[in-house]
Amino acid sequence: MNAAGRGHRLASLDGLRGLAALVVVVHHCALTLPSLAAQFLGPNSTSPAWWLTYTPAYLAWAGREAVLVFFVLSGLVLALPRLSGGRSGGWSRYYRKRMVRLYVPVLAAVAFTGIVLALVPRTPGAGWSWWMLAHTAPLGPVDLAHDAVLVAGTGWANSALWSLKYEVLFSLLLPVFVLVARRVVLPLWVSVPVVLAGIGWAASAGYELVSYLAVFGVGVLLAQQLGTLSRWAAWIDGLRTRGVAWAGLLILALTMLLGEVWARLATPDPFHWWLLGRPAAVLGAGLLVVCCLHAPGPRRLLSARPLQWLGTVSFALYLVHEPIVVSVATVTGPTKVGVLVTLVAGTALSLGAAVLFHRAVERPSMRLADRLGRSTRPAAPAPVPPRPAATDTVLLGLRTRPAVPPTRVPARAGRSA
């Protein structure tokens, strides 16, 4: 595969990230409707809300599953430069850039949340969903400061920040993941099932930190075996029925991505939702990333200008959308008409705020991170080969900004994305 082709395929992941971020926004808009939010406590009826939650229709607002896609993307994108021989620099440079890229936007997002809370107080209303009621707890500057630290956990002021705790911890532990990936090289059909089993065990036992960090590990494994995946994709492309084969893999990925949904239908025991459902969903997320890297149809769609633009502002969209959505829902009320207004107005306002946030905060933070990354004395230059390797050419064009943090996901039934 030539460098241009690989760069184009990696660009499709930005489109996937942008699409997943939009799904997160829709997810939070949907949770303002009590009947939809109630489904996250377990299947409880055959109402329209049930059909929107426990059928493939849920893909339109599958915020919890978008979390898993984000984590797999982060694992792949952050580990790839270190595992492919690219010019990734030293770890000190990496830490400075990564922490600035995460924390500067988060601090600004927390300040933005405080302003929104002051303008639109979150007072409980009659008939509100449990998700909306969770946002009405008294909050003050100390609570916002606690949220900005991230690694100590976050509250409901801007509950979407919860996943950044895992983004930060994985970023700090990336050298360990890379070291293990370099030392232990196993076929994907061996390594991935082992990691998936660990994910299910940790989730069902209540070890959320271990479980989520292992989801990043699946992305690291994809980065480790990117060449193998490319060869498999080339074999599929050589089939006469390649279109059918790719379509089948994409359908399989989306079906497995809803693994927890199917587990909830199969058993009333939450233990099995996590033991069986989460590994299936993570496998679906990984397979979806592979399809978006290599399948011609998804790759073209995700490389289109609108989704590339959405990928550009996706981190900002994630950081600012929830305070806006909750504020709009506070005004409109917990009705079907209210949730439609929230969906339209909340999404539009969130996109507008994301554009401004990206220009005013995220772009400057990227420039600051680049400057800090160049602030140390350079190491002695290595001999320059007469022709750059194709991998180096690709990595120079690979965006390694942090994956859009996902929405809040319940550690157990009763909490939501």
TrEMBL record:
<protein>
    <submittedName>
        <fullName>Peptidoglycan/LPS O-acetylase OafA/YrhL, contains acyltransferase and SGNH-hydrolase domains</fullName>
    </submittedName>
</protein>
<feature type="transmembrane region" description="Helical">
    <location>
        <begin position="271"/>
        <end position="295"/>
    </location>
</feature>
<feature type="region of interest" description="Disordered">
    <location>
        <begin position="375"/>
        <end position="417"/>
    </location>
</feature>
<dbReference type="InterPro" id="IPR002656">
    <property type="entry name" value="Acyl_transf_3_dom"/>
</dbReference>
<keyword id="KW-0472">Membrane</keyword>
<feature type="domain" description="Acyltransferase 3">
    <location>
        <begin position="11"/>
        <end position="358"/>
    </location>
</feature>
<feature type="transmembrane region" description="Helical">
    <location>
        <begin position="160"/>
        <end position="179"/>
    </location>
</feature>
<keyword id="KW-0812">Transmembrane</keyword>
<dbReference type="InterPro" id="IPR050879">
    <property type="entry name" value="Acyltransferase_3"/>
</dbReference>
<dbReference type="GO" id="GO:0016787">
    <property type="term" value="F:hydrolase activity"/>
</dbReference>
<dbReference type="GO" id="GO:0016747">
    <property type="term" value="F:acyltransferase activity, transferring groups other than amino-acyl groups"/>
</dbReference>
<keyword id="KW-0808">Transferase</keyword>
<dbReference type="GO" id="GO:0000271">
    <property type="term" value="P:polysaccharide biosynthetic process"/>
</dbReference>
<keyword id="KW-0012">Acyltransferase</keyword>
<feature type="transmembrane region" description="Helical">
    <location>
        <begin position="102"/>
        <end position="120"/>
    </location>
</feature>
<feature type="transmembrane region" description="Helical">
    <location>
        <begin position="20"/>
        <end position="41"/>
    </location>
</feature>
<feature type="transmembrane region" description="Helical">
    <location>
        <begin position="186"/>
        <end position="203"/>
    </location>
</feature>
<keyword id="KW-0378">Hydrolase</keyword>
<feature type="transmembrane region" description="Helical">
    <location>
        <begin position="209"/>
        <end position="232"/>
    </location>
</feature>
<keyword id="KW-1133">Transmembrane helix</keyword>
<dbReference type="Pfam" id="PF01757">
    <property type="entry name" value="Acyl_transf_3"/>
</dbReference>
<feature type="transmembrane region" description="Helical">
    <location>
        <begin position="244"/>
        <end position="265"/>
    </location>
</feature>
<feature type="transmembrane region" description="Helical">
    <location>
        <begin position="337"/>
        <end position="357"/>
    </location>
</feature>
<feature type="transmembrane region" description="Helical">
    <location>
        <begin position="307"/>
        <end position="331"/>
    </location>
</feature>
<dbReference type="GO" id="GO:0016020">
    <property type="term" value="C:membrane"/>
</dbReference>
<feature type="transmembrane region" description="Helical">
    <location>
        <begin position="61"/>
        <end position="81"/>
    </location>
</feature>
